[in-house]
Amino acid sequence: MPRIGWIEDANAEGDLARLFDLFRARSATGAVPPILRTMSYRPDFLAAVDEASRVLHFSDGALTRAQHEMIASYVAALNRCRY
Q1: Model pTM score
Q2: Is 64 left (phi over 0), alpha (psi -120 to 50) or beta?
Q3: How many whole angstroms from its chain centre is CA 30?
Q4: Which of 16, 60, 79, 83 has the most C-beta neighbours closer than 10 Å?
Q5: In a domain? residue 37
Q6: 50-76 burial by CB neighbour count: b if 16+ within 10 A, else e?
């Protein structure tokens, strides 16, 4: 059972519903990733985190996106976190 509650798709309204639609459109599976759902009670924060991750984490800079992903995967494995 998750310890962090979130708003399900059927109950999402306004900005959150629009964000969920955007995340589903971007997703290869057509689903909203659970890690993003954990911020569903704060759509303003969720939008800011999404923007920051796309601009900072998932763009090429000093490291490529592939390198970012490899580091994130390694750290997640060290922490036994599926994300």
Answers
A1: 0.70
A2: beta
A3: 13
A4: 16
A5: yes
A6: beeeeeeeeeeeeeeeeebeeeeeeee
